[in-house]
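Input.
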Amino acid sequence: MDSLNIAIYGGSFDMPTLGHLMVVTHLLLNDASVDGISIPPCFQQRGKKLTEFHHREAMCRLQFGFLPRTEIDPIERDLGGESLTYRLIQEMVRRKPHARFRFVMGADLMGTAPSWEGWEEICRLAPPLIIGRAGIKPENPGDPTPISPVVSSTIVKEALAKGDYQTAERYISTPVFNYIRQHEELYRA
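Output.
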């Protein structure tokens, strides 16, 4: 993707949900400042046991791969080790020095983000593009209106662990749901 304005929508994507898909679709359709979206699933997340990277990457390809101007980027696997947002952004800037980046993040993270390692560097290299989330009420004029529904991967994983496919199916896309059914061991308790 050689676009000039690239939105980086990173995260563990331990369970890519319909909420994630709605955010990407919203940006592609409604944000004229976004030429393309890069989706780099994290490799390792501090304090969290994630599904193996190759499964998460495959689910991201099923979830977002059909969307135009969207790239699933395994850059975090290439970097190895613990995933840190500032390290990811530094590497993306190094690889695509002519692009302008924005870091997509939910409004619910704004309270803790300034304490992240390298926060100033993140803001300098890829100014945050804040997405409103259901349950996070805009406090000030100009705060983002919620576009992301309350869809928790935790709810989906708990349902899958119990074999409750009917609940899980409501929160994830059919291709991701089918992938999980083919690999039932992924989220079994």
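The domain at 5-149 is CATH 3.40.50.620 (Rossmann fold).
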